[in-house]
Amino acid sequence: MKRNLIFCLMFLILATLFMSNISYANEDYQTKLPKVNIGIIYEGDDDFNLKLKNSVEEEILQVLSGEYQVKFSEFKADNLATQNIIIDSLLANSKIDAIVPAGILSSYGVINRKDLTKPVIAPYIIESETIGFSLGGDRTGAENLNFIAADSFLAKDIKAFKSLTSFNKLTFITSKDFSHGTGKFFESLRKEAEKNNIEVDYIDSNASKEDITNKLDDTEAVYLSPLLVGEQETYLVKEINQKKIPTFTLADVMNDENGILAGYSHNKEIKARARATALNLELILSGEDAAKLPVHIDKSNEEFVINMKVAREIGVFPDWELLNSSKIINQDDVNSKKLTLEDTLNLAIENNTDLAAKSKEIAIAEDDLKKAKNNKKPKFDLNTTYSQIDEHRAQLGVASEQKLTGGIELNQLIFSEDANANIDINQNLYQQKKIEIKQEKLDLVLDTIKSYINTLKARADIKLQEENIKLTKDNLNIAETKNEVGISGPADIYRWESQESVELSKLSETERQLKMAKDNLKRILNFDLTEDISLAEIDANNVFEKLVDKFKVNNPWKLDKISNELIKESLKNSPELESLDYLIKVKEREYQMKKRKYYLPQVGLSAKYDTYFDHWGINGPPTAPDAHGEDEWSVGIQASFPLYDGGNKNVELAKVEKEIEQLQKKRESVLKKIEQNLRNKVTAANTEYRKNKYSQDAVESAYKSLELVRDAYSKGLVSISQLLDAQSAVINAKRQEFVTNYNYLIAIAEVQRALGDFDIININ
């Protein structure tokens, strides 16, 4: 033991020394690298401008850190005057090796300078047509200057905006610094707009709020400068949306909260600009001339983003084609009813019409029970009689011409086996109806959970189909690039375009399935089918806390043990068995009643009291039949016993006996079905768990395969069919992953239904 301890200590010491030597060697290597100090100008601490700066710095570090000790000297300037002062300072500073203005305004601020004494790379020129001077092909031709611009940036934006909503007048809102410092941007925008029969004007964002608001009355669409940030942007967007004017962003990154209707995502574009900047900087530091380096990148693979929350607010509704080809954010209607699974289950029990109709049966059964009990209570009859005879008979002394009499009668059942049995039978039927309601609630909860999860499943399938379309678009871009450089012909392009059309068709079918799933859930909840609902994802640990980990077993023997334990609980709680037990009790009590009829009579008490109130008209003699005398009363007890009813007693008794045997056989059958059903559900839950576990591994492997095959395809090493297969493998694996996960939740819910109880809701 001691020897082993000494050995371990020696190993740890050696390992520590080894790692320290590696660290020192790395540090020593770094100190031997040449130093490069890069001046960075950025335009603000808002998310957008920090993204521009950070993207450039990250890419530069990634490209240069193996060759240089990189240092960034950062300067913040949000206006042209300050930026020019900083640029002058950086040009004069001998410790700065290169300058990168990491913002749109600062990028434009350097391109027309003639005094660039050191390399300057401007990453964020919108497009080359806006710079104000001619290029030498794909080169700046200007000493020490390189910039990065996108092809057909404005034309692409305007085309996308027009596809979303129709307008003939576009207002560009930006600061004076942007309009003065961005060369021919406004002129380029006007030219592109005129090609689409659109008039363009300009609003200074620094004007008063009242002036801006008044000018907005004359526009049909707004194009926003990325230099609008913070409260200024928030105020303007709010005012524009209140006027129901569509807004588009020039370069700002679309997100869920900024209130802008649409724009390109720019994420890939920003990364591509930053990567091109880093690669060009590496070439410049190795001796290449900045004036001869490429300036263009492609914006064609960016996603067009539509904010559906804003679209609904201002009344803009994209067509199916645009919805399918764009990225949709805030897709769930803000006015939609947001539901968790627990909310949904409570609403189902409260609103479901089938359950409401079934619940009336309890009230009816309760009334039947009250009626049965009332048969044993005393019954009182009160009577009053007014009579009149003709004068002739009155004169003959038959009776008084007019008279008024009255009386009261009491009937009380003392003993009746029929009445006693009727109470017991209705009591059991009442309890049986309560069990039926419990059974109905359990079925309703299960149906609701399954409908809820099927809706989530359809929603997940839409997201997966959208990812599939995105993969196809990326592969289409690769095919187009291969065609441009001559690696392959246009056949692959047509094949990917065809594949995209097929997948868009599948997306439409998936959207139909989501609508059907939602409609089914709304029917269960008794919602208007036109009402929109938004469902939260399910936290399995909260919803199925008692069972969520119970089926995660890896051998059949343990699964059998779990099944046996749950079967006992299921049989104990089963409403189906309990309902049959009450029906058997009903028939057993009926059998007892019919058997007792052979020897038990029905006994009742009867009492009657009559009195004479008054008479009018011609009176008969005192000896007349209705002459007023003493009040009359009577009391009696009656017992009745049917001696012979044609043999029906024997027939009825035999019939009830057979009905009891029938129910008992049915109970045996139901018991076996419950056991079989529970074992099947437990096996299904375990199977879905294992399938989901395997599918997670499959997804990871499929993605790795896709990246390898895609890289090989881009180099012309594999065919398009191989890439299609790899992409299909990813989509199928991801679909299998979420389908098995949701199926696992459904399987747990079905087990809980078989157990007669749910963790998430109390149905008693």
Automatic annotation (TrEMBL):
Q: Which residues form the signal peptide?
A: 1-25
- Alphabetically list the UniProt keywords: Cell outer membrane, Coiled coil, Membrane, Signal, Transmembrane, Transmembrane beta strand, Transport
- Coiled coil region boundaries: 646-680
Q: Please give an example of a GO cellular component term from this record.
A: efflux pump complex
Q: Which superkingdom does the taxonomy of this entry point to?
A: Bacteria
Where does this one sit in the cell? Cell outer membrane
Q: Name one GO molecular function term.
A: porin activity
Q: Which family does it belong to?
A: Belongs to the outer membrane factor (OMF) (TC 1.B.17) family.
State the protein's name: Outer membrane protein TolC
